[in-house]
Design brief:
There is one protein chain. The protein is globular and about 45 Å long. It has five helices and no strands. It has a single domain, classed as Nucleotidyltransferases  domain 2 (Four Helix Bundle (Hemerythrin (Met), subunit A), Up-down Bundle), CATH 1.20.120.330. Helix 1 runs antiparallel to helix 5, helix 2 crosses helix 3 and helix 2 packs parallel to helix 5. It is mainly alpha-helical.
Amino acid sequence: MTLTIHDLAYYRLQKSRENLKSADILIKAGMYGDSLSRSYYAIFTAARALLALKQLDSKKHSGVISLFNRHYVKTGIVDRTIGKELNKARLRRESSDYADFYLVDKKEAVNQFETAKRFIDAVENILSGEQ
């Protein structure tokens, strides 16, 4: 069986949705910091799904974000606000995971979760137009 770039893109989109589901479960369990992280990974993996279409990827988060912005935001394929949300989500996740005394409350976790849903929906719309 030969896999295509579309297969990879849809695989990554599915992984993104799994991360989103985990984020939802973690919010309901009151684990807001972990939820924030899973929501970020939902966004990050969805961005990588689009990059698969152009056969682009990076081993670094900053590289993925840069490629996403260059090939999807600056070209107008993705709305600029969506691109900004990717970077904001990364900064929140890094603060939550690495900064001492950075406490994530329910509102922040829910906001990032909702952002992730919108981001994934936007990516899915683009992917469905690529077939």
